[in-house]
Write a structure and sequence with these properties.
Layout lengths: L4 H7 L16 E8 L6 H7 L7 E7 L10 E7 L6 H15 L4 E5 L3 H6 L2 E3 L2 H5 L12 E2 L6 H14 L3 E6 L1 H16 L5 E6 L17 H22 L3 E6 L6 H10 L3 E2 L2 H6 L4 H17 L5 E6 L7 H13 L4 H7 L3 H11 L2 H9 L2 H9 L14 H18 L9 E6 L10 H19 L5 E6 L9 E6 L4 E6 L2 E6 L9 H15 L15 H4 L4 H6 L3
Helix pairs in contact: 3-18, 8-9, 9-19, 11-17, 12-15
Amino acid sequence: MKISSLQTARYEYAPKLPTMLRGGIANICVKEGEETHSVADQEKVKALFPNTYGKKEITFQNGENTSEAKKQVVGVILSGGQAPGGHNVICGLYDALKATNPENVLYGFKNGPIGLINDDYLIFDDEYINAYRNTGGFDIIGSGRTKLETTEQFAVVAEVCKKHGITAIVIIGGDDSNTNAAVLAEYFAANNTGVQVIGCPKTIDGDLKNEDIECSFGFDTATKTYAEIIGNIERDANSAKKYWHFVKVMGRSASHVALECALKTQPNVCLISEEVAAKKMSLSQLADYIADSVANRASNGMNFGVAIIPEGVVEFVPEFSVLIHEINELLAGAKADAFNALPTWEDKYAFIEKGLTVESMAVFAILPQSIQQQLFLERDPHGNVQVSLIESEKLFSALVAAKLAERKAAGTYTGKFNPLHHFLGYEGRCAFPSNFDADYCYSLGYNAFMLIQYGYNGYLSKISNLSKPATEWVAGGMPITKMMNIERRHGEDKPVIKKALVELDGAPFKYFEERRETWAVETAYVYPGAIQYYGPAEVCDITTVTLALEQAK
């Protein structure tokens, strides 16, 4: 296999660790903090996790290692979608494990949680690990979306662990995966298996964060990758001066990616789903908002611009959510077969018109026909609309075009509007991790093994103080149950880690809010360029604008 020169150079990069983890395994001790409780529904969560609830937060610091000396056999899985830096979590875990005792063993279970269930694994060695250091992707062992959530699955996993003498499992994943990690940890504790479970916070969406998790890994690299492309698009727009670019970015449930990209590039428009929901903005209002920027710029001779659209924004529009619910009801059961049997779109449209309320039909009628058809052609296995597949960037450009046509007819707009469309998603999930993510992930993995060595179970590997240089980061752990609340899902109360949405009173959004009116009219573009790996620390090791604003002193 041919290897690029960058890849060769990245193999040699030595990730930076927090000072407290750099003095050697023998010089790392534990400082215990206060007992914890869940963020909400304390009694219900405690009842579900009697063996792992209420444990203390801990911090590692320099001092004599007092952990029990024993051979550790650890299993690791990657769960869910890819995020840059996952390989380094495993590398950090491996290095700490081998530094503690060369006889320690690391199993990699293949293709996510299913690898644990099917006992499909490899055993890591130096040669294999060294081929993946500081690289993007999850191809080191693969990933998957199987959920570990039933007692039958837990029993199988326990038997697999017993077969190999496994003492701990590290689950690298997002909110659902870490919820599953907590439930598995509770099962192991309740059944005296002797197996520990440690989680690591991963998601490029940035929605796995709270007072303890300052940033999930992969978010920095993904947003830098997207921002480079958006900056390039902005430069092209400012050069050609004849196109409006509508750029959809990943973020189904939260707009952290869109906001960070906006802070990095200063586009003319960026929608924030959480604001749309809070203000109960309609599709028509959103289209007018974007059209105002188009028209104002056109009046100054600038028939070009850039708009960032979060992937899931339409789900936050109240009237659209009602429409989706009605469509799901309209096509429930046998009615879907009757609808699909209709020969033409005109016949189907009449069927829809009869089945929707007047209010929802008014919303449906303003959608471009291509979007209308997407709502009925793309269904999930339960027969529901797959909202994530809606091409919202094309939806909004079409709605804006209609608004501008009305204004032109009224004589209030004389500009030109030529839209182009982009979706930035998979481009950012497996990029070479930035120095920040390479360092952060290596620290998470190294730290995860220290939690194992000290006997913790149901804990999340935690690295904080992330806006500072890596030497000043703080390593420790927190019980996963601290992040939990109870939500009603499929008719049952379930413990879940709540997704963190953009806080409209937070410093990052306030910074954006104070400047967006200027950006909407002026050409204030910033061109971040490619991720830099070598050079001054202020260029190579900087983290996100979001984190810098949140932790500004």
